Amino acid sequence: MHYYTYAYLREDKTPYYIGKGNGRRIYGKNGRPCGKPKDKSRIIYLKQNLTEREAFRHEIYMIAVFGRKDLGTGILHNKTDGGEGSSGVVKSDETKLKISKALKGKKRPQNVIEKIKKGRTGIKHTEQTKQIIKEKRANQIFTEDTRKKLSEAHIGKPKPHLYKQFQIINPEGKVIDGVGIRKFCNKNNLNYDNIRKILNGTQKKHKGWTAYKKKIYK
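The structure corresponding to this sequence follows.
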């Protein structure tokens, strides 16, 4: 029997639920903490033709990448970290609330971290999935606690330069404070590589923008 992982997307194409299944599970109605989209174009396969074990591992990986709303770590409505033990389990709202409160602020158990590590092995995403992950990471602001969890799991680790604080001088000579180089460049229509070189002191100017001082971002 072949298994797959799937995602339900919001209208802005960000995922709000990640699951694993086989057959018509992706279109089923029960066993989830949220409903499926009425628009079938927002129901996508992430990875197909998997063994059940591979599907569990990939489900864990994807949930860790996007994080869970109930734990304050991300954007998914999933109520578990995925993988063995969560398949087919339907909990009452009271039980879910107790589990959510108990888990808040706690580190993932070592066995879950090991599952996540294994979930990365041999994974090849579709181009659509890669784009979703790329857009999510580009716009995501992690809390210190979430960064620590992701670092421990060795997955979805935010690139340090995405969150660095820096100062730069605009074409009018004003000192601008920024957080997140890539986001800053996208907002101001600037080339990311050129701005990084300016901040590192290896380039003097880009579109009139200059460094406030050498290697100022930290």
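Helices lie at 52-66, 93-103, 110-120, 127-139, 144-153, 181-187, 192-200.
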